[in-house]
Structures are given as structure tokens and as C-alpha cells.
């Protein structure tokens, strides 16, 4: 009887937890928690983030992404700091995922830039997208819209961002 009560309590607690973490697998790649930061009304771009782990013996490459319900175009970008200014540039060849390594697309580094947003990204909502890898192929995913801080907020005192390069090819 006591075991049943404990099981019911555990199941009730589990059901009450938010279902925010979500993971996917394709080939040797594991993709953890694709998410985007909520946007204010009128925003034309949004940032997407996730972690990719390659358990294989050969590298792969994230070459493209889509989110047709919310964005006309998704680009892979990289942020970097030069002369105290954070800049952003498109990475046309995508991001390499080395064998036996993890690559985080996170605020302040590599990320997905959702261009020409069709609507604001509202916290708590989810939308479908795809990730395409050079070797593993195309994977359907769901992006969770998180708050402005997201699961991992930008560090305090981070330099200002220069968004003037959105859509410009990498040099």
C-alpha cells in the first residue's frame, strides 16, 4: 500500500513539472533543448539556441535550419567581440560538430538567427523547425520560446551587440 502511495506521489510530482527540456537524436548526434528568446512586438529577428553532441567517430556539420511557421529565413550566425563591440556575422558553411565533442549554440556565440519574423515569439509557446546536418541529414525539432533571460542569460556587463550585419555574408 505504501509503495502505491509513493508511486502515485512521484507520478503526480512528475506530471506537475514543466516539460521544457526536450532532446532529439539523429545518427550519432544528440540535440538538447532547442529554444528561442521571446521577442517584443515588431521585432524582425530572433535568436535560437541548442546544444549538439556528436557521439560518433567523425565530425558532422550543422549546415542549415528552418522555422517556417515563424520565420522566412534562418541563418547560422556567430558573435564575436572586437574593440569592445560585439558583432555578429553569418556562417555560410555552418558549424562543425567535432567527433566526440559538444557544441553549444548559445547567447554570445554561435546561434540561429531567425530573420523576417512573421509574428512575435511569445514565452511559453512552441513551434516546429528543422536542423540539417551534412552527414546525419535533416531532423524535425520543436523550439521552446523562453523568457528574455532564457535558460542561460547573457552575462552581466556583456558588451553591446551590433546587429547591422544581419543577413550579410561572412568575410
Give descriptors for this structure.
1 helix, about 170 residues, disordered N terminus, disordered C terminus, twelve-stranded mixed sheet, mainly beta, Immunoglobulin-like, 12 strands
What does this structure look like?
The chain contains 1 helix and 12 strands. Helix content is 9%, strand content 49%. The chain is mainly beta and 171 residues long. It has one domain (21-149): PCu(A)C copper chaperone (Immunoglobulin-like, Sandwich), CATH 2.60.40. Strands 1, 2, 3, 4, 5, 6, 7, 8, 9, 10, 11 and 12 form a 12-stranded mixed β-sheet that branches. The chain has one helix at residues 2-16; strands at 23-26, 29-37, 45-54, 60-66, 71-82, 85-90, 95-97, 102-105, 110-117, 126-133, 137-146, 161-162.
- In the predicted model, the low-confidence regions spanning at least 5 consecutive residues are 1-20, 152-171
CATH superfamily annotation: PCu(A)C copper chaperone
Q: What is the radius of gyration?
A: 18 Å
Query: Mean pLDDT, rounded to whole units?
Result: 82
The CATH top-level class label: Mainly Beta
CATH topology: Immunoglobulin-like
